[in-house]
Structures are given as C-alpha cells and as structure tokens.
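Quick one:
INPUT:
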C-alpha cells in the first residue's frame, strides 16, 4: 500500500504559498508508516516548530492498473474519503531552498490522517463535492472539487504512467487554500458536506 499525494492542485492554495502554477500534477509519496492509527492523537514532532494541516479529498484504488486511459480511470475507484496531509512547513522551506526532495517534511510518522470512506455513488457529482476543515470550532479550510486543476480521473491516468496502482493505494488529491499551523490542544474536524469523516486532537 502506498499513499500518493498531489501538490498544487488548487489555484488559491498555490497563491497563498507563493508557488508557481504547475503545468502538470506535482506528485510525491508518503510511506504507510505515515498513517496515524485510528483514534490516536497527533503529536507534534520535535524536529519542527511549524506543522501545517492540509485537508484533502481521498480516493481509494480498487484494482491493479498501469497506463490507465482517462476514460477508464473511473473504474479504478469506488470510494471517496477525507484526510490530512500534515506538513512540516519549516523543514519543507529549507529543503525547497536547497532544491532537495520534500520527504522529511511530508513523510514522517503520523503525517497522514485517513478518515472514513463512503461509496462514490453517494455523490450526485464528483466534480462538485464540498469539504471543510474545522479547527477549534472555526472553519479554516473550505474546498470544492470543482476548483481542482486536475480531477480524479486525470490524476489516476497521470500517476499510472509512472507507477503501477495497486488495490488499497490511497490518492491524496490536493488541498485548498487556508492551510495553517497546529499547536497542542487544537482539535481538527474534517467534513465532506455536512458529514464528519475524522476528528483529531493535537498534542
């Protein structure tokens, strides 16, 4: 099982971090050891003073695939979920300044929150799914899949040109604007539309 993450897939998030708009999806990986166990709090790691939340729609791969054509990509997932890509922003900035990979900032233990999944048939339109992150009872991120630069099927087709997708792989599809820092005693709640998909306490 691998966690495939897409960066810079929402224009406003690109702007808030002052990044260049990509001409193709930005792809990076997290190991399975990055997954925070269910019902566990997230502990801020000692190596960072600037851990940011990034809420994202997740899709779970349900069959083996390589070089998947966009028109067939919809057959490779049947569940939609919600999660967080925690990022050590201070570490990431240092790595980016040196032209180095981001793994230390993105792939550390506990950096991937994976909430519940529900059938994609629950949604009338996969290109119009609203989702949000609430921190301490205040909405800090509000997103909608209609604002993605590359949608689910395009991402599956693109990623599968470089690596084989396997059953159980999870695709993090990018975060909207509003990312920010967590501190101890924060509580994060992730929702798709009005349904809660995860709750995380920060320690």
């Amino acid at each position: 099982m691998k966690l495939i993450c897409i960066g810079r897939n929402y224009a406003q998030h690109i702007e808030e971090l002052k990044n260049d708009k990509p001409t193709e999806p930005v792809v990076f990986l997290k190991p399975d050891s990055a997954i925070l166990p269910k019902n566990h709090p997230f502990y801020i790691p000692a190596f960072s003073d600037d851990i940011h939340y990034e809420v994202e729609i997740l899709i779970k791969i349900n069959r083996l695939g390589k070089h998947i054509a966009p028109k067939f990509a919809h057959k490779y997932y049947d569940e939609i979920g919600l999660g967080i890509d925690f990022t050590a922003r201070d570490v990431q900035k240092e790595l980016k300044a040196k032209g180095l990979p981001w793994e230390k900032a993105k792939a550390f233990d506990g950096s991937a929150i994976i909430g519940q999944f529900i059938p994609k048939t629950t949604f009338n339109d996969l290109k119009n799914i609203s989702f949000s992150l609430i921190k301490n009872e205040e909405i800090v991120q509000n997103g909608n899949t209609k604002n993605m630069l590359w949608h689910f099927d395009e991402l599956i087709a693109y990623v599968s040109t470089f690596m084989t997708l396997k059953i159980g792989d999870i695709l993090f599809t990018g975060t909207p604007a509003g990312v920010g820092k967590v501190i101890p005693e924060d509580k994060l709640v992730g929702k798709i539309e009005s349904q809660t998909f995860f709750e995380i306490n920060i320690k």
